[in-house]
Amino acid sequence: MNVIKIEPIVRQVIETDNDWKILKQLGKGSYGVVYLAEKKGIQKAIKVIMYEGKRPDLQADIEKEIKIMHHLAIKGKCDLIPCVREVYYADDDPSEEEDYFSDSKSKTTYYTFLVMDYIQGIPLKTYWNNLDNPELKVKLIYLVVLALRTLHYYNILHLDVHGENIMVTDDLHIYFIDFGLACMKDKCWAPFGGLYSPPEHDNYRVGNENKQVFSEMSDVYQLGLILSEMIRGETIQPVIYSHNCVSEMDVVINSLRTFKEYSPWNIIIGQMIKCDLMERPNLDMVIEEYKTGKMFSSKYISSYNKKHLKLYKSRESSEILTSISDNKEPGFDVSKMSDEKDLYETYEDGENSEEEYEGESSSTTSDEDINNSSEIQSLSDTDEDT
User: Fold this and answer.
1) Cα–Cα distances in angstroms (integers) from residue 140 to residues 42, 43, 103, in the given order
2) Contact, 160 vs 194, CB < 8 A?
3) Crossing angle, helix 242-256 and helix 265-272, to 10 degrees?
4) What ranges in the chain are assigned the alpha helix state H?
5) Is 193 exposed, middle or buried (0-12, 13-18, 19+ CB in 10 A)?
């Protein structure tokens, strides 16, 4: 039997002070460990974040993560994230045990304990690799896009989207975990350094200056990369420098078009990983493209983003770098589009049309899409039949 090595203060706070029983270690990261614990027959994941010395920046990021998860919890979205139920704090000051005359003094270690819902799922990539049916994989991509769109609907940018931070349960619920780099859209001070950082996290030209910027398009790019890896079966080294991004991404985009069994995602994902964030569709557009099979043109996407997309600088609160509309309502209304002749693109396979779009708009995310319960049930039923 493997013995779990746990620091005395961690065991004291979790087990002695709060009556949890640590069962096993679930994972380990740069700043801490996640344990599975149980109390009165209820299992929770306890994330222990630790750091030495006074770190106001890191403590602010921890508090930000807690507030974001609390924000989603009060919105009733514990079916999308592992909601935080309790928070404990502790510190360990080694100087109390050191020799008074010692020349070297150790720094105090600070601990934050997040008691969260335990998600019994597996990482997205692993789940994908266990599926053999391309039709199920197409629907799975849609559910992941829908889940990320829900985060954006509630004004959350994740900013660290990758295969290990997206979990899929047996009943095909999608959960996003690890909000350490996340932020509220209007209160962002997110540091960069996510696994799939997009080019604008290196620099982006705004006026006469190059700046680090982020927006919901950061999430779109990151999700596009992970989905392209899943479809192509090849790992992509993230390209963060604009001078070589276009040539490298063009290779990936052209390769994706050959995987027609995943249509229309093989084309949509190519749009999501465009190097210029202004050329990427937002997730409302992505959902509309999936439902209709028609792709918005680069010209239209760029025009729309230049009018509506909010860009923020790293670690500065709510400074808008571009002119934006004053419309704060989420959603994308196809009925308000202009220049319909530029709306759609035609590809060599002939699957997309430049014909004028007719009929009711379905791209604005509905309550059914936000809750996605019917889609999950539909996919679950299909999976059981296979």
Assistant:
1) 30, 27, 59
2) yes
3) 180
4) 8-11, 56-74, 124-129, 134-153, 216-232, 242-256, 265-272, 283-292, 298-308, 367-371, 373-385
5) exposed
Minimal CA–CA distance to 238: which of 273, 212, 186, 262? 273
Q: Which domains does the chain have, with CATH numbers?
A: 8-117 (3.30.200.20), 121-385 (1.10.510.10)
CA separation for the pair 270, 27 (Å, rounded): 32
3-state secondary structure of 71: helix
Residue 162 identity:
H
Which pTM does this prediction carry? Answer: 0.78
CA distance linking residue 176 with residue 75, whole number of Å = 15
Most distant CA atoms of the chain, gap in Å: 83
CA angle 165, 204, 240 (to 5 degrees): 45
Give 195's Cβ-side CA count (13 Å radius): 15
CB atoms within 10 A of CB 125: 16
Q: Euclidean distance between the first and final Cα of the chain, in Å?
A: 38
Q: Do residues 21 and 39 make contact, with C-beta atoms less than 8 angstroms apart?
A: yes
Q: Rounded distance, CA 205 to CA 211, Å? A: 6
Helix (H) or strand (E) run with residue 39 in it: strand 32-39
pLDDT tens digits for range 228-278: 999 999 887 665 555 578 888 888 999 999 999 999 999 999 999 998 899
